[in-house]
Design goal:
Oligomer: single chain
CATH superfamily of the largest domain: YVTN repeat-like/Quinoprotein amine dehydrogenase
Strand content: 35-45%
Helix content: under 10%
Shape: globular
Radius of gyration: 24 Å
CATH architecture of the largest domain: 7 Propeller
CATH class of the largest domain: Mainly Beta
CATH topology of the largest domain: Methylamine Dehydrogenase, Chain H
Distance between the termini: 32 Å
Number of strands: 33
Structural class: mainly beta
């Protein structure tokens, strides 16, 4: 058997053995999970026919401004995962997001249908978990703790790291670790999608459920993929993978569904070469085969208003292409870089009004409210010459894209005080309007990773610093997730 599959299946076998212990009707029992942050609560329902759902709620620690984690499992979900046995009424409720090393107040609700009404049975229990040594993740430097009076739209943050084989790591806005990966891989790309975590290993895509069980989803070596890099972003129908191929380095994207099936492929080398040839330029002066990193794609976003794929090329620009045809729509970037010397590419350049700065070496593009949000690293090109401008600071920025005027206007930025220069990696994402989380992944000249939250009033809601472990290794990217009202069906 494949060693990877053997390693992934072993925890499942151990879990099933643990849960085979007999229970008495109505009794609540708690079983260990694969990490301190996951436990399994088991009981039995008497009326199997009317059982409808199981729900758990984890109370925040004393003094926390975070909301409770609340997750509802539909009966169909529990049956599909083997957590409900309709023959004997045994129900297992996976409880995840627990605090490590302390008692957790947990409420378990069992729901039953009854005519036009729904009845519930509630259990208040305490789950005490062992301590967890997460190294720097357990010992951040608290520049500013979560302010009690600060209202954020989010409470949980996914840290994408590769320094430890526990990708990804979830923290709350109090800097408490609430989940760690169980796939045993240190994966730079990761995403929460279809109510599971997706990570990569070699040429394979893996899926980790909230109960910690990991399964292989797909292997892409058969279509020329040699590895994954950077991000996994949400696309129009699926998720967008950044891949290397036998022909191209960091300039190919795949959109795949939850089952790993390829929905569409974008080859930026072909797209840009075609545009340059049509415009009378020689693409061999700009586009290069593998292993040259001429493009350095690090993020993508879907813009629904005009069906565009927005792609971040750290070496060059942000480029928008038609999602289906792949034709270039516009380019936003530093006009002192190499790309601007080609008329075929320059014709797509958006105009920048006075006071608007172009992004340089940007990461983490997204489209909240139909505006372009990104982390402007401020670092010039590494391969392409001339490299363009290099600044002495980094800043999250947002742009309004007006295609009728063919113009990009900066509408928001955040300048840290004191300033931070994070020349590579890093991210910014907006949750509800004006609720941001910023990741300075190599802040302070590669000394620390900074995770900063901004609320809707522009106030710094929290500011934590973690020791940098390898370049970008601690958290190269960080994004909000929601566990306060999760429905699993």
């Amino acid at each position: 058997m494949n060693p990877l599959i053997t390693r992934l299946i072993a925890p499942v076998t151990a879990l099933l053995c643990t849960l085979s212990v007999a229970v008495e009707a109505g009794q609540i029992q708690v079983f260990d999970g694969p990490t301190p942050f996951i436990r399994f609560v088991r009981t039995r329902v008497g009326n199997v026919a009317t059982f409808n759902f199981a729900q758990f709620q984890i109370q925040p620690k004393a003094g926390s401004a975070t909301r409770p984690i609340q997750v509802r499992y539909a009966r169909s979900y529990l049956e599909a995962r083997g957590y409900f046995d309709s023959n004997n009424g045994n129900v297992t409720v996976p409880v995840f997001g627990l605090y490590a090393g302390r008692p957790n107040g947990v409420i378990i609700d069992l729901g039953f249908s009854g005519g036009s009404h729904q009845r519930t049975k509630e259990f208040d229990i305490t789950i005490t978990t062992p301590a967890y040594d997460g190294g720097t993740y357990s010992n951040p430097t608290v520049i500013q703790p979560r302010l009690p009076g600060t209202t954020l739209s989010y409470d949980f943050i996914l840290l994408k790291s590769y320094a430890h084989p526990n990708t990804p790591i979830i923290i709350d806005s109090d800097a408490e670790i609430r989940w760690v990966g169980t796939a045993g891989v240190a994966s730079i790309p990761s995403i929460l999608f279809d109510n599971a975590f997706y990570v990569t290993s070699g040429n394979s895509l893996l899926r980790t459920e909230f109960d910690g069980v990991t399964t292989p989803v797909a292997d892409y070596s058969g279509i020329g993929v040699t590895g994954f890099h950077h991000n996994i972003d949400p696309g129009r129908e699926g998720m967008i993978l950044d891949v290397d191929t036998v022909d191209q380095t960091e300039s190919v994207n795949l959109e795949v569904d939850a089952g790993g099936n390829v929905l569409r492929t974008w080859k930026l080398a072909d797209i840009i070469s075609a545009a340059m040839i049509a415009g009378g330029d020689d693409p061999s002066q700009f586009v290069y085969p593998a292993p040259t990193d001429w493009f350095h794609n690090n993020a993508c976003a879907y813009r629904s208003s005009d069906n565009s794929l927005i792609v971040s090329s750290r070496e060059n620009f942000v480029i928008a292409i038609d999602y289906d045809s792949g034709t270039i729509k516009w380019i936003l970037g530093d006009p002192t870089k190499h790309w601007y010397q080609f008329p075929s590419l320059r014709q797509f350049s958006l105009t920048l009004p006075s006071g608007t700065l172009p992004p340089i070496g940007q990461h983490a593009v997204s489209m909240p409210g139909d505006q372009l949000l990104l982390f402007d690293d401020g670092s010039g090109s590494i391969f392409q010459q001339p490299p363009g401008v290099t600044r002495t600071y980094s800043a999250p920025r947002k742009y309004q894209i007006d295609l009728s005027a063919f113009e990009a206007t900066e509408t928001w930025h955040y300048y840290a005080d004191p300033g931070v220069y994070s020349p590579i990696c890093s991210s910014v994402y907006e949750d509800a309007p004006d609720n941001y989380v910023i990741d300075y992944s190599v802040g302070g000249a590669f000394i620390y990773t900074g995770i900063v939250g901004l609320d809707a009033l522009g106030s710094v809601a929290f500011n934590y610093q973690y020791q940098e472990q390898a370049v970008c290794g601690t958290a190269w990217n960080a994004i909000q997730i929601h566990w306060e009202d999760l429905q699993l069906e």
